[in-house]
Automatic annotation (TrEMBL):
This is Alkyl transferase. Its EC number is 2.5.1.-. The lineage of its organism: Eukaryota, Viridiplantae, Streptophyta, Embryophyta, Tracheophyta. Belongs to the UPP synthase family. It is an enzyme of class 2 (transferase). Keywords: Transferase. NCBIfam families: uppS (TIGR00055). It comes from Gossypium arboreum (Tree cotton). InterPro entries: UPP_synth-like, UPP_synth-like_sf.
Length: 282
């Protein structure tokens, strides 16, 4: 056997063994239910490594797939990734095309994984903005994995949180208008009935949250942003008001298992806060 191949195999078995041991130890404490990620720093990584720009996105896609596997092994139930914002359409056409090609490749890989593991795949965002072929692929994958619930991967494409809010308010208005025209106005003079009627026509928090693209997942416990930037970039700001923000200086393609471990330890050290906030929301 080739010596180099043998050494790589031994190292990979060893690191997978260490990872499993560390995950066992982490599982003694609370494990976050939902981790969301802003994958920043792909182009800077490519530049630093003297690679073509697209190679940074390739490495970023690989890093995402690895993180999905680590989260699955650790027992995190939901992972959500910001793959492409509506604003990203303003980037160079070649870069937009590169990310769309990677999206297609990721769909193929996730579809293969879902054949052997109960993984549900969601795409959140305005999918109307995708080309028809990608949109069909996305819908097919969502349909094929809809029954699974053990582990949920959500890829945010053509997504912006402000767009999600506007879309949800529009959807809620449509529902209420439908209700209004279907039930009809009450014509009696009873003030109590009128007040109840008004309430039924008003949009409330439950309507808005129910109609958001992200309604398929609970709010994230942790939001990780790489690339040494400390902003939300229009990603899940509605859903992250009580989330732990982990801003990492590493570029996305270099995120690894030890970053995940560190972030989860941070979550465990702040766990009382999350429990308190959750109880207040009930
Ligand atoms: C599912 C899927 C398609 C994932 C793989 C591709 C991937 C990592 C997409 C992220 C795209 C993006 C616009 C990242 C922002 O960082 P940037 O690249 O603009 O980095 P910079 O801050 O260095 O410019």
């Amino acid at each position: 056997m080739d010596k180099e191949y043998f050494l790589t195999k031994v190292l990979s078995c060893w690191s997978s063994f260490i990872r499993r041991v560390v995950f066992c130890v982490l599982r003694v404490g609370p494990i976050p239910t939902h981790i969301a990620v802003i994958m920043d720093g792909n182009r800077r990584y490519a530049k630093r490594k003297l690679l073509e720009e697209g190679a940074g996105h390739d490495a970023g896609a690989m890093a995402l797939l690895n993180l999905i596997i680590y989260c699955y092994e650790l027992g995190v139930k939901y992972i959500t990734a910001y793959a492409f914002s509506i604003d990203n359409f303003r980037r160079k056409p070649s870069e937009v095309q590169k990310i769309m090609d990677l999206l297609k490749e990721c769909m193929t890989v996730l579809a293969k994984i879902a054949k052997h593991h109960p993984i549900k795949v969601n795409f959140a965002g305005n999918l109307e903005l995708l080309n028809a072929e990608l949109r069909d692929e996305a819908c097919k994958l969502m349909g094929a994995t809809a029954e699974y619930s053990k582990f949920v991967v959500t890829i945010c494409v053509c997504y912006c949180c402000t767009d999600d809010i506007v879309h949800s308010v529009e959807e809620s208005c449509r529902e209420k208008c439908y209700y209004h025209s279907y039930i009809g106005d009450s014509h009696d003079d009873d003030k109590d009935d009128d007040d109840k009627d008004d309430e039924r026509h008003m949009i409330n928090l439950v309507d808005i949250e129910k109609n958001m693209y992200m309604a398929v997942t609970p709010d994230p416990d942790i939001l990780i942003r790489t690339g040494d930037k400390h902003r939300l970039s229009n990603f899940l700001q509605w859903q992250t008001c009580h989330s732990l923000l982990a801003s990492l200086s590493t570029d996305w393609p270099e995120i690894g298992v030890w970053h995940l471990v560190k972030v989860v330890i941070d979550f465990q050290q702040n766990y009382d806060y999350f429990v308190r906030k959750r109880l207040q929301q009930l």
